[in-house]
Amino acid sequence: MTSEPVVEKIIPKVIPVNIEDEMKSSYIDYAMSVIIGRAIPDIRDGLKPVHRRTLYAMWEEGNTSDKAYKKSARAVAGTMGKYHPHGDASIYDTLVKMAQPFSYRIPLVDGQGNFGSIDGDSAAAMRYTEARLTRYAEELLADLDKKTVDFTPNFDSSTEEPTVLPSKVPNLLVNGTSGIAVGMATNMPPHNLREVCSAVEMTIKNPDCTVEDLMQVMPGPDFPTGGLITGTEGIVSAYHTGYGKLTVRGVAEIEDVETKTPKIIISEIPYQVNKARMVELIATLVKEKKIEGISDLRDESDRDGLRVVVDLKKGVIPTVVLNQLYKHTPLESTFGIINLAISDNQPKVLGLKAIISEFLHHRATVVRRRCEFDLKKAKDRLHILLGLLVALDRIDEVIATIRQSASSEAAQKALIATFGLTEPQTVAILQMQLRRLAALEQAKIRDERDSLAHVIAELERILSCEANIYEEIRKEIVDVGERYGDDRRTEITCSQTILEREDLIEDKPVLISITTQNYIKRLPLETYRMQRRGGRGVIGMATKDEDSVEDIFVASMHDYLLCFTTDGRVYWLKVYNIPEASRTSKGKAIVNLLELQDELITAVIPIRTFRHDRYLLFSTEQGQVVKVPQDQFSRPRSTGINAISLRENDSLVDVKLTDGTKELILSTRKGQSLRFHEQTVRTVGRNASGVRGIKLKYGDLVQAATVVEKDHLLTITELGYGKRTEFDEFRGHGRGTMGVRNILTAPQNGVVATKAVSSDDEIVVMSALGNVIRMKVSDISVQKRSARGVRIIRLDEDDRVVGLAVLQQEILSASFDDEAEEPVVNDPDVEEQSLLDL
């Protein structure tokens, strides 16, 4: 009985591992693989592994600039098969980008065929396109066969590849780079080759030079698509710290032809901006009315250059539209600089000086190893030539020695023993052809010996000290800059222009109306056509039953509005922040624009600048007046500030701008007016209660204040009557007196407003029910103080006049045509029809 064999039971060995430690270790390994082997370039040659491998594969195949083009698929296959086993798509995308003149400042690949466009079009398939190295790329590969750099086994150890290219220039600065790794990213802009070479030359000559010194010859990035860099702060920051932010604008010119509509011609766009998408976005913004004033848009780009034409509507200010394009489209883009590269096998963020220093250190190593290689080769060749010359001088003895030898090995030993030659020399002698015995051939050998002696002396001189090596680097980089450099394409401005919202808005006069319930809106002045005195006007606002229009005035879009409340507080508001509404809409509640505290706006003053020698004169219902310098209101606060202190049962009525030399007229509801000089009112600070301006009769209230200027005082009453009166009719009285009668009134026909006017002015009158009439001041007759006036606007029984605005002649001439027969209504449907479908 045979026994069964004993089988040992194999117990698997289990090694306990902390999952957190394993995940951390594995992820770090993966991250470093991505950082070092894929996404971040080497600081020495400015290339990522895929770029380096592609160029090396093409160079190894002899696919150089002096040869015929070869299929791109051949270069991709060679790269993937030997060096980069990550898929053909990534390799071809890399090759395509290196051939695009709008992606690389100086392309590394010379492409033939469709290699894509600035519109984002993809390149043709690799089987259709052809490529070869550019002459500039060959400068990165030069001397690669002279053991100037280290080689490492490829992925399957079947061959070797260079760890870095020799690179005669800091390609990282010339062509820039971008890449996203794990936890870090790089984004370096391209620069002008001539300027980079000059910066390297300056560093060699003066190693202690500063970044500011380098910026004298290398002021900043130079993008292949041109453009305009606004401001140098980001450049200085990037050159010092490695981080910076650039604002890059496209180049656009305003072409204003008198016989045609104005145009904006875009000839350059920011780096890495897709032109087709930019044009599409402009068209979309025009349709959505986020950009106004554009009538047509065309892309007229061709092989001669980029040209995008933006046709503008008649009457539009081109600079405003251009600012809108800068603000809302990629015509102005931000380029964030991160100078991250691999240095000493580690990712580092470096400034300009450090990048140049790292390159010079690498280049010095390359030049030293090249010179050592050339020196050894020259010495070896000289050694052979000296042996040949010995043999030629004693040729008969050499031939006899060789004949007496039984074999070549014996001949070799005999030559070494007899003539004192070395083994390499004897091998060369034995291989020498008989034709070398000719006198001419002997002369060539002697000439080559002398030439090699000179070369060896020069190489030994270069290797004798570091200064000579750096001088050699300087000569080479100056030569490269002269042969391949070109003029700067990107312009740099010293100051950075920050576009505020104000820069995007045309500074034009508009009409602003406010209701008793504090609804506010703005309208273009051309909304209301001219009518004769006594007409009914047109509907200016649709109001609620309990609401009515309280005031209207004219202001410019860029003005500040100082909004004064009945409680004596003041708030700031920009005119362009008031929403533009249609003629019949009620507008927007002002509480949505200002942080009011249970108070109503009673006076609004448009103002552009705040000066210490200009004043605001306040008038209250009870006849008090206060004079405060303008600069007291120059620092806005969202919650408002106190303007004046009001007495009990008093409220603010009117505010006027003065220069300290004016006379004023206070007008009451019952038709009294008092003229006095503002110098009788002392200047005080904010929160003052002021002094008595006019003494009031029982039941009377101050209605308005008017600065004495221009020709006449225009007075309007509730029932739509008005008149002009000579200012000389109002003789000056002392401040605090009752004044004189201005106009004949009745209990139901009190004074609404008074304004100083000239004969060539126009006025806009609005009623509580929203009717508006615009007319010439010259249509209103000049009457005495005791007259009732003439009818200005015909009102319904339950309507009354609430507001009066004066349109001065300079505003009229700059804003609209007086002879317009029809009102221009802001109708969204009409506007959409006038816009071309882009």
Automatic annotation (TrEMBL):
<keyword id="KW-0067">ATP-binding</keyword>
<keyword id="KW-0963">Cytoplasm</keyword>
<dbReference type="GO" id="GO:0005737">
    <property type="term" value="C:cytoplasm"/>
</dbReference>
<keyword id="KW-0799">Topoisomerase</keyword>
<dbReference type="GO" id="GO:0005524">
    <property type="term" value="F:ATP binding"/>
</dbReference>
<dbReference type="InterPro" id="IPR013760">
    <property type="entry name" value="Topo_IIA-like_dom_sf"/>
</dbReference>
<dbReference type="GO" id="GO:0006265">
    <property type="term" value="P:DNA topological change"/>
</dbReference>
<comment type="function">
    <text>A type II topoisomerase that negatively supercoils closed circular double-stranded (ds) DNA in an ATP-dependent manner to modulate DNA topology and maintain chromosomes in an underwound state. Negative supercoiling favors strand separation, and DNA replication, transcription, recombination and repair, all of which involve strand separation. Also able to catalyze the interconversion of other topological isomers of dsDNA rings, including catenanes and knotted rings. Type II topoisomerases break and join 2 DNA strands simultaneously in an ATP-dependent manner.</text>
</comment>
<feature type="region of interest" description="Disordered">
    <location>
        <begin position="818"/>
        <end position="838"/>
    </location>
</feature>
<keyword id="KW-0413">Isomerase</keyword>
<dbReference type="Pfam" id="PF00521">
    <property type="entry name" value="DNA_topoisoIV"/>
</dbReference>
<dbReference type="GO" id="GO:0003918">
    <property type="term" value="F:DNA topoisomerase type II (double strand cut, ATP-hydrolyzing) activity"/>
</dbReference>
<keyword id="KW-0238">DNA-binding</keyword>
<dbReference type="InterPro" id="IPR035516">
    <property type="entry name" value="Gyrase/topoIV_suA_C"/>
</dbReference>
<dbReference type="Pfam" id="PF03989">
    <property type="entry name" value="DNA_gyraseA_C"/>
</dbReference>
<comment type="subunit">
    <text>Heterotetramer composed of ParC and ParE.</text>
</comment>
<protein>
    <recommendedName>
        <fullName>DNA gyrase subunit A</fullName>
        <ecNumber>5.6.2.2</ecNumber>
    </recommendedName>
</protein>
<dbReference type="GO" id="GO:0005694">
    <property type="term" value="C:chromosome"/>
</dbReference>
<dbReference type="InterPro" id="IPR005743">
    <property type="entry name" value="GyrA"/>
</dbReference>
<feature type="active site" description="O-(5'-phospho-DNA)-tyrosine intermediate">
    <location>
        <position position="128"/>
    </location>
</feature>
<dbReference type="GO" id="GO:0003677">
    <property type="term" value="F:DNA binding"/>
</dbReference>
<feature type="short sequence motif" description="GyrA-box">
    <location>
        <begin position="531"/>
        <end position="537"/>
    </location>
</feature>
<dbReference type="InterPro" id="IPR006691">
    <property type="entry name" value="GyrA/parC_rep"/>
</dbReference>
<dbReference type="GO" id="GO:0006261">
    <property type="term" value="P:DNA-templated DNA replication"/>
</dbReference>
<feature type="domain" description="Topo IIA-type catalytic">
    <location>
        <begin position="40"/>
        <end position="504"/>
    </location>
</feature>
<keyword id="KW-0547">Nucleotide-binding</keyword>
<dbReference type="GO" id="GO:0009330">
    <property type="term" value="C:DNA topoisomerase type II (double strand cut, ATP-hydrolyzing) complex"/>
</dbReference>
<comment type="subunit">
    <text>Heterotetramer, composed of two GyrA and two GyrB chains. In the heterotetramer, GyrA contains the active site tyrosine that forms a transient covalent intermediate with DNA, while GyrB binds cofactors and catalyzes ATP hydrolysis.</text>
</comment>
<comment type="similarity">
    <text>Belongs to the type II topoisomerase GyrA/ParC subunit family.</text>
</comment>
<dbReference type="InterPro" id="IPR013757">
    <property type="entry name" value="Topo_IIA_A_a_sf"/>
</dbReference>
<dbReference type="InterPro" id="IPR050220">
    <property type="entry name" value="Type_II_DNA_Topoisomerases"/>
</dbReference>
<dbReference type="InterPro" id="IPR002205">
    <property type="entry name" value="Topo_IIA_dom_A"/>
</dbReference>
<dbReference type="InterPro" id="IPR013758">
    <property type="entry name" value="Topo_IIA_A/C_ab"/>
</dbReference>
